[in-house]
User: Fold this.
Amino acid sequence: MCRHLGWLGEPVSIASLMLDPPSGLQVQSYAPRRQKHGLMNADGWGVGFFDHGHARRWRSASPLWGDVSFASVAPALHSRCVVAAVRSATVGMPIEASASAPFSDGSWLLSHNGVVDRGVLPVSRAAESTVDSAMLAALIFDRGLDNLADTILDVGTADPSARLNIMAANGSRLVATTWGDTLSVLRRDDGVVLASEPYDDHPDWQDIPERHLVDVTGGQVSLTPLEGSS
Ligand code: GLN
Assistant:
């Protein structure tokens, strides 16, 4: 499983979210603390952020810890809305930059932490890669993020062993699901962080229960159980 993170709030640097925290995504790429599946996340990484309404992305098939160019530039990149991930590729999936989250339809940035049988997903020409996560992202984009809960329920029914942890944002809204892995929220004075696992030991981190949809807009965090879940 991968580890991912989303930010919605005041402009902050990408480095402050991914690289600086003591257990941030950079450290999670080789020493995650709560990872249930896989030992490390060395098969690539990606970050997407909104810049005056435009979704910008930087993705790689190499380990985050070795990217000295990104480490140099990340402190200069600032955004109100960010989706970032480090990847542990599922066996049999391609390792290439286009298989690293976040995926995008131009309006949304989306990361998938988990695994799904590609046989239950419709083939979409819009998928950026043959990796299961890109095919799932294409389906979620097709059906619309407003229908994310229903899409997760449908896919979860079609593949009961799927793990479907999503993190997605469009610049003014950040949404996530828990379906088979951990997620925590940190409400800060300047915004909200959602992350597969806390990036530090601040006491304000709260765990999100399994099979929930989290929706962050205008500083408000709402939690909804995913219906039909057992
Ligand atoms: N199945 C996806 C991939 O291979 C995501 C893997 C994960 O969550 N570790 O990239």
About this structure: Residues 12 and 78 are 5 Å apart (CA to CA).
